[in-house]
Structures
1.
Amino acid sequence: MRDADKSVQIGGGRVIRAAEPGDIGQIRACICEAIDASPFYNAKFKAFEKARLNENVLRALIAADPWFVPVVMFKGEFAGFIVTIPDCGVLWASWIYIHPRFRQTAIAVAAVGFLVRRWDNNRFHKTIALVRPENAAAEAVNAHFGFKRVAVLPNHMFGQDYVLMERPFNRTIDVYDPPLDVGRLTMLRLKLRQALGRD
């Protein structure tokens, strides 16, 4: 998979494509919908997570690499998204979300498979996911693609337990991604680029 690729066919009418700045509003709305509808998180976590994954963060991720926030399509319809965040050679798989209308189509399995294939490219030591212990389906899909249960983290975030899952990658380069910059100056630069039609 070349970095220049903007979309990848994953069979059965499913496509995963690199996010574009124009997708931010839809991705952000879907993030809020996913968080609000989830039975696995308490109110404090939900409020925190919606504030954390704001439009500036999404814009900065897409500017750093549009594949950090790929969009999942099914037969031309927006079906879900993935949010990954680079951190010191580790890729955090923050959210893999498929809209309920498409959950019978195996898109979630295809999305996790894509995530593993895309990023096992010498750039990261491993990818990490935090899964609530009650979310057996997410843990099973991750395990299918080589994620191992490393630990149960009791009382980890906002008083809730989490399962830490990791999948090793084969990192060979000695250059690390810079920290994600969501400062005002960076946001101004990104908005200016967008206004000038360069994004």
2.
Amino acid sequence: MTSGNDSPQFDTNAFFHDEEFHRKYPGVQIPPPCFLDAGATIVAHEPNTSLTVRFPVLEKHANPVGFLQGGILCGLFDNVFGPLSFSTLRKPCVSIDMNVNFIRAVKPGEFVFIRAEFRSKTKKLLQMHAEARNEKQKLVATATSSLMVYEP
């Protein structure tokens, strides 16, 4: 991984573009507004395998002692698990659990890079693992999550 502004960028619109998906699942917002609001930038994608996304750590997401709030970091993990599931299955998926281990603090003004990968896939259930790292590639947190295919 490279630091903040040096990271290559993927075209988010192209990554999420899928006319058949939008016809089949009208009303399902891809990319989700929370992905866009988080300032997410896709920096690496290995189809059917992994996705890496860069997030700026925003001042408004700081906890009372001035570091990235843990719940926000959980949301950032979810903002990588979801798009990885979408890019692979082309179906809406929802998280059914998540376990996060916090290791190191991150301050506003820095970037967090989250790389998620599959541990297992079935037609209805996905299990994923992810690592969040800072710009110096130091481990910030790890997460695991199970996602279920959602059929509206």
3.
Amino acid sequence: MAVLFRSLRSLADFAIVFMVVARAQSGATASGPQVQYSALSRSGDTISATRVPVITSAGKTVYQDIILQFDADADGNLTLTSGFPTVVASPALQVFTLKPGKYAGPSNISQGKMFITITGPGVLSGGTGLWIITLSEGASNYTYPDNATIYSGPIESNPQYARLKKAGITSTAWS
């Protein structure tokens, strides 16, 4: 694997190798991994593909999370960190009934121009759903909230969990 990464010259080369690695790790057939439908993220020396749909030979879709972590040798050649890539089953999403779309506030407030747009879900580690609230086009400047982030799923995989725990907030009533 390290030899392959030494010869990479472009992002296109990396994408091809990434798809080959994903296919090899999953043991997929020709229909196999559908990386183009996954959520890609990167941080530091790590690239993650979350919820990669993999179509089995029976036509069933299962979801996998793939993590690639990189090192560089003394000559600056890119290599995979020992133990990577990792491929694990994606946790089930817990998005419940939240729906993306444009929402309007009461028609008798701010001339009926309190509009927000909810987009999502994005998927974070542990199956946490990520939803974003933004002002919609034509919304009143008095619309509140004008932006927000909503996390859905298990509280332990919420990015704010450490802060909640430190603050002594233990209720799971809204998690």
4.
Amino acid sequence: MSILLFLLGFIASVYGIIIGAGGGFIIVPFLILFFDTPSHIAAGTGLAIVFLNSISGIYVYLKQGRVLIRQGVLFGVAAIPGTFVGLFFVQQISEHWFQYGLAVLLVGLGIYITCKKPPEAAEVCHTSSNEQPRLFLLLVIGLMIGTISSFFGIGGGWLLVPFSFIYFALMPTEQRLPPF
């Protein structure tokens, strides 16, 4: 069993770091389905794994110049209060509804990503006239992602990357940034 958990953690970590999602969306359902882990324990374990994966992955992404530090800090600061909201709600909900919500969320996201095509000319606007609404949107999305990701224990990259970066064009997906 320990070997299976180690392999699961390794595979989820590698895949999660590659796509910028941490791997919690793999770990949490697996713990619930195959190890009969209570939802709140699986969520907490998932968050711990996502945290460790994020710490290990950030070094390489920074070195490659793939991190928008200012926007990342804004998302992170906005996500902090959301994590407390998510943690409160996960303690209030039954196992059944937690599992149902997680399934609907993951299947819905998969369908959305599969069917939705990104805008063809998604450019990030850096003009000062657009900065205030964009800043507000970054903070709102950070708060939502903090709440949802801490509730389900799966991190926020799985939601942040497709919606915020690709479809809302808040951040570039291919552009290389200068190392800091």
